[in-house]
Amino acid sequence: MFQADLYNFKKRGNTMKNKMGFGLLRLPETEGKPDWNKIFALTDRYLELGGTYFDTCYTYMDGVSDMAIKKALSERKPRDSFRVIEKLPGYFCSTYEDCRKYFDEELRRTGLEYFDVFMLHWLNGENYEIAERCEEFRFLKEKKEEGTALRIGFSYHDSADLLDRILTAHPEMDVVLLQVNYLDWDTAGIESRRCYETAVKHGKRVFVMEPVKGGTLADIPREAEQILRDIHSDWSPADWALRFVQSLPGVELCLSGMNELSQLEANMRSFEPLSGDETEALFRARDIITKNTEVPCTGCGYCLDHCPMGIPIPGYFRMYNELKRYPEDDWKVQPAYEQLAASHGRASDCIGCGSCEEHCPQRIEISENMKRAAELLEN
Ligand code: SF4
Ligand code: SF4
User: Fold this and answer.
1) Domain-wise residue ranges, the chain
2) Quick one: which ligand is closest to 350's CA?
3) What is the DSSP string of 59-122?
4) Which ligand is nearest to the CA of 364?
5) For the chain, what is the radius of gyration of the CA atoms?
6) CA angle 99, 104, 105 (to 5 degrees)
7) How far is CA 252 from CA 62, 121, 246, 247, 321, in A?
8) pTM of the shown model
9) Closest C-alpha to ligand 2, atom 4
10) Ligand 1 neighbours (beta carbon < 6 A)
11) pLDDT band at residue 345, thresholds of 50, 70 and 90?
12) Phi first, then psi: what are they for 167, rounded to 5°?
């Protein structure tokens, strides 16, 4: 049952400053190359509006995101005017020495002398074993002691129980980066709420990724949107998603990609925390979204390089979701499917190998869902 008091962030007296951080996982491009003028305009405006944190990783955009830190910030702005979160691709390491190699390369790529927050990227059961084997936590601690990492932590994609075990074993961690949004709040796959509560219980600062679930929560079923518009006609669905995450008292930072100035300006507005009634309406909308979303794909694309059949997995799931939600739109979805399938593997080409699934942060059963998508899209 919904507990209004628990979620009445307004009544609990939180004053709220904007907590938006600038995520560099997806940056604007023109003709397949980074659009540097647009990137400079966006990062400059974010700083003008009072933002400070930029989030990068060795693997984002094949290194372009690290390069963006150098070109947009290190070479153009005073060091104390911005903060950078960098991540170690610990899953590429075979030895402790490898950590040093990646760290030094990240400093060189970004043009920085220290990171404000340095994290292990993508801890899950498998990567946690690698991290322990290669003593990656010790590496982080040493970086903090020498002053090249001001705070340390990890980004996380697994169960709340494992998170509890990791934080018990590693109380030296300052920050945890979690996937938190109102759609995944109580799902068994992501466990946003339980992971958030676990991190808070251990006294950690929570940074949030995917507050709008890769844009999924910016485009919700009409019935769900109506519930929200009836309360605030001038709030977009994305505003609601960001307000929910920013209202959580343990959240220090909410990371989101911002590829358009209008989106950035909207995200940087100051917010009031949600009231109990507003949160209750949001959860009613959530139930409708859940019922109308066949595959909770965020479009991150992490699966793509692992498909031997060249299937554009997120593209097909987007079409599949759209067709399930609005069957009357088949006249536009099916030609779009045929167009994409002409230059890629078809949904029915899926051989069920499962090699995509271990790379999916949403833990989607891709091969099973691809069968269903093939039935609908190719019918
Ligand atoms: S299970 Fe299907 S979609 Fe996934 S990698 Fe294998 S062929 Fe590609
Ligand atoms: S299926 Fe998973 S890994 Fe692939 S794009 Fe969707 S969310 Fe990302």
Assistant:
1) 20-280, 304-377
2) 1
3) TGGGGHHHHHIIIIIITTS-GGG-EEEEEE-GGG-SSHHHHHHHHHHHHHHHT-S-EEEEEEEE
4) 2
5) 21
6) 100
7) 28, 19, 8, 10, 33
8) 0.87
9) 303
10) 306-307, 309, 311, 313, 350-356, 366-367, 370
11) very high
12) -70, -30
Separation of CA 175 from chain center? 16
User: Which tokens in the block code for residue 72?
Assistant: 């947009």
* Residues 207 and 87: beta-carbon distance below 8 Å: no
Tracing tokens 């919700």 back to the chain, one arrives at 220
**Averaged pLDDT for residues 12-18:** 66
| CA of 374, nearest ligand number | 1
Distance from Cα 360 to the centre of ligand 2, integer Å = 5
Query: Where on the phi/psi map is residue 177: left (φ > 0), alpha (ψ -120 to 50), or beta?
Result: beta
Q: How many CA atoms lie within 13 A of 268 on its CB side?
A: 21
Fold of 20-280: TIM Barrel (3.20.20)
State yes or no: pLDDT of 12 exceeds 80. Answer: no
Ligand 2: centre distance to CA 226 (Å): 28
DSSP calls for 309-363: T---HHHHHHHHHHHHH-GGGHHHHHHHHHHHHHTS--GGG-----TTGGG-TT-
Cα 77 to averaged position of ligand 2 atoms, centre (Å): 35
The yes-or-no verdict on residue 201 having pLDDT over 60 is yes
